[in-house]
Design goal:
Layout lengths: L2 E8 L4 E10 L5 E9 L1 H4 L7 H23 L8 E7 L3 H18 L3 E5 H13 L5 E6 L4 E8 L2 E7 L5 H11 L6 H9 L24 H18 L4 H31 L7 E5 L6 H13 L3 E3 L3 H4 L4 H12 L17
Parallel strand pairs: 1-4, 4-5, 6-9, 9-10
Antiparallel strand pairs: 1-2, 2-3, 6-7, 7-8
Helix pairs in contact: 2-3, 4-11, 5-6, 5-7, 5-8, 6-8, 7-8, 8-9
The structure holds 5'-O-[(R)-(carboxyoxy)(hydroxy)phosphoryl]adenosine and zinc ion.
The site of 5'-O-[(R)-(carboxyoxy)(hydroxy)phosphoryl]adenosine (KG4) has 19 residues, from helix 5 and helix 6.
Length: 347
């Protein structure tokens, strides 16, 4: 097969991203540029992503991000073979900004357009970073998602289960807010948890006693709120050590739930006797060192290889979109000007 150079665009949440990925024949794909502009400072005062502000910022930053990706890679638009763009799921204003920009480029340059499911982008990342072979098991854990998938092909995934309410990242962010720690909550809770006693509080492990791979994290938030209030009532404030203990207890509960459900997902996955069994994690929460360490242990117990992409490719980025578009395009798929932006789009 020939060499393909794909420009990818991502704007489905609060990161505006453009990237260029190239693959020559069967060689490992190369990331020639990956530009990400976060919007944290725009939303921080509101305690969450404001869709209208996000959409405007994407519209303003997309062209600029494409230019930066070209400059970084040293390529010109004439060397791009196709434009890949996140067409959902996500905040519709942002997704629309990306799709419009991609359509403009595709029409202007007269090159193909490929719509990509954002979740497929995350789920295919281990193929970009580790040349993972199908089928592999994927745990996608972020601020918006939490699910186990078996990837059978670029557009073929089976879902084994996932959260029935909040995503773990949301729970980390909420925990940080309740404890007066900075956002995003994941890194700050993880840092505090290092000094805490995970056994000082016993937080629930929801759905752990139920069969299957479904998870629930909303009860954990409520339990944390109650435990915090109890500490505050006792001490008339939140002592540093008590805060660390709450973080450690909370994180331990999330780790236990993810580890046990991963064990079950592995059993389902291994029943099909994959030749090179692999568990990959992706999504912002995959940055958590305690979660990574436990999942590594679970995998070792099952003789399954564990991989976590580099942090910059775990969180939202356009390299994963360019790569997923590349796989779709190679398999003969392509979109046209009727490509629509989809707020919801299950894999
Ligand atoms: O994938 P991502 O960048 O955005 C989406 O949600 O799509 O993930 C962001 C989430 C946030 O909730 C953040 O708190 C969480 O990932 N996160 C972490 C860590 N780093 C980021 N959660 C736990 N531990 C971390 N070290
Ligand atoms: Zn994402």
């Amino acid at each position: 097969p020939e060499t393909l150079t794909i420009l990818g665009l991502e704007s489905s949440c609060d990161d505006t991203a453009a990237a260029i990925v190239r693959q020559s024949g069967d060689k490992p794909p190369e990331i020639l540029a990956s530009i990400v502009h976060g919007q944290n400072e725009l939303h921080s005062a509101f305690g969450g992503v404001v869709p209208e502000i996000a959409a405007r910022a994407h519209a303003e930053k997309l062209d600029y991000s494409v230019e930066e990706a070209l400059t970084t890679s040293g390529l010109t638009l004439a060397e791009i073979d196709a434009i890949a763009v996140t067409a959902g799921p996500g905040l519709i204003g942002g997704v629309l900004s990306g799709v419009m920009c991609a359509k403009g480029l595709s029409a202007g340059l007269n090159i193909p357009l490929v719509g990509v499911n954002h979740l497929a982008g995350h789920a295919l990342t281990p193929r970009l970073t580790d040349q993972a072979t199908y089928p592999y098991l994927m745990l996608l854990v972020s601020g918006g998602h939490c699910q186990f998938l078996i990837a059978h092909g670029p557009e073929r995934f089976s879902r084994l289960g996932g959260t029935i309410d909040d995503a773990p990242g949301e729970a980390f962010d909420k925990t940080a807010r309740l404890l007066g720690l900075p956002q995003p909550g994941g890194p700050s809770v993880q840092a505090e948890a290092k000094y805490g006693d995970p056994k000082a509080h016993r937080f629930p492990r929801p759905l752990l006693d139920r069969p299957g791979c479904n998870m629930s994290f909303s009860g954990l938030k409520t339990a944390l709120l109650r435990a915090r209030d109890a500490v505050m009532a006792e001490h008339g404030g939140l002592p540093k050590q008590a805060r660390a203990d709450l973080c450690a207890g909370f994180q331990a509960a999330v780790v236990d739930v993810l580890a046990e459900k991963t064990r079950r997902a592995l059993e389902v996955y291994l029943a099909d006797t994959p030749s090179k069994p692999l568990l990959a994690v992706a999504g912002g929460v995959a940055a958590n060192t305690a979660i990574r360490a436990r999942l590594e242990t679970v995998c070792a117990d099952h003789s399954v290889t564990f991989t976590a992409p580099p942090l910059a490719l775990c969180t939202d980025n356009a390299a994963m979109i360019a790569y997923a578009g590349l796989e779709r395009f190679r398999s003969g798929a392509q979109d046209d000007m009727t490509l629509s932006a989809r707020p919801r789009w299950p894999l």
